[in-house]
Structures are given as C-alpha cells and as structure tokens.
Amino acid sequence: MPFQVLSHTADTGIEATSDTLPGLLAALATGMFEFMEPVPPGTPGEPVTVEVESASLEDLVVDLLSELLFVSESEDAMLTRFEVELPSPTNARVTATAVPIDRSGMVGAPIKAVTYHDLTIEERDGGWYGRVYFDV
Fold first, then answer.
1. Distance between CA atoms of 59 and 31, rounded to whole angstroms?
2. Helix 57-75 vs helix 21-36: angle between axes, to the nearest 10 degrees?
3. Contact predicate 68/50, CB 8 Å
4. Which residue, of 62, 75, 79, 112, is most buried by count of CB atoms within 10 Å of its CB?
5. For residue 22, is pLDDT > 60?
6. What is the Cα Rg of the chain in Å?
C-alpha cells in the first residue's frame, strides 16, 4: 500500500513515499480519496483534469489536493487512478478518473478541507516523503 492513515484528535492524516515527486502526489491523492471511499480497481468513470500553480511545493500539495476535493464534491464523484505531470516543482497537471458515487454510502468520514497542520513534503534517501492532515 503506497500510503498509511494517521490519527489526530480533530483531523486525519496520511503519509506516503515514492521514488518520484509526481508519484508522491499521486499517492497522497489516492490516500485522500481511499480514506473516504475506496473505489474498486477497474471501475469505469470519466476522465477529469486539474491544473494548479502555487508559490511553493507545500502550497502546491495543499492546493492540488484541495482542487481535487472540490472537483469530487462538484461532480459528486470519487477520484481514482491519478496521473501527475510536473512541468515545474510548483506547477502540476493531474488526470484522474471520476467515478459517480452515492455519498450516503461512504465508508470513511468526508474530508472538509486539506490543512497545513504538520505538513511535510521532502526528499529523503533518494525518494520523496509526504504527510498531510485533513479536517474531517
């Protein structure tokens, strides 16, 4: 599993590792959505693309996950199968699959917001590590 769920008093977080920064962003996005409602592999859906440009790498992570969460809420869909392109360390383009979902059947708590609390994005041992907490 490319991510791990972390507990906190009012929030829930995830941490992930990857060999690449795009892989880390994909793992964090996957973890955020699987926390709310795992989508079975191969479930059909529609492609969606988001682009985000931010002032820093940390801002990019929060902005990107927040934008994906917004798309999920506005499309009434869970997102899965993330493909991340990074034209620069502060600019991301993500293509994902939007799977329609009945939110009343969600197994996890809905995420209200992506936070900066204890946010960590860093290169470690030739790979990347990230930790993000969500307001639930």
1. 18
2. 40
3. yes
4. 79
5. yes
6. 14
> How many structural domains comprise the chain?
1
Of 9, 128, 2, the C-alpha closest to 60 is 128
Nearest-10 Cα torsion for 129, 35, 25, 131: -30
Q: Which amino acid is at 46?
A: E
**Residue 55: domain span:** 3-135
pTM for the model stands at: 0.90
We report the CATH number of the domain holding residue 13 as 3.55.10.10
- DSSP letters, 4-66, are EEEE-SSEEEEEEEESSHHHHHHHHHHHHHHHH-PPPTT---EEEEEEEE-SSHHHHHHHHHH
The predicted-structure confidence for 51-98, as pLDDT tens digits, reads as follows 999 999 999 999 999 999 999 999 999 999 999 999 998 999 999 999
The whole-number pLDDT of residue 104 equals 44
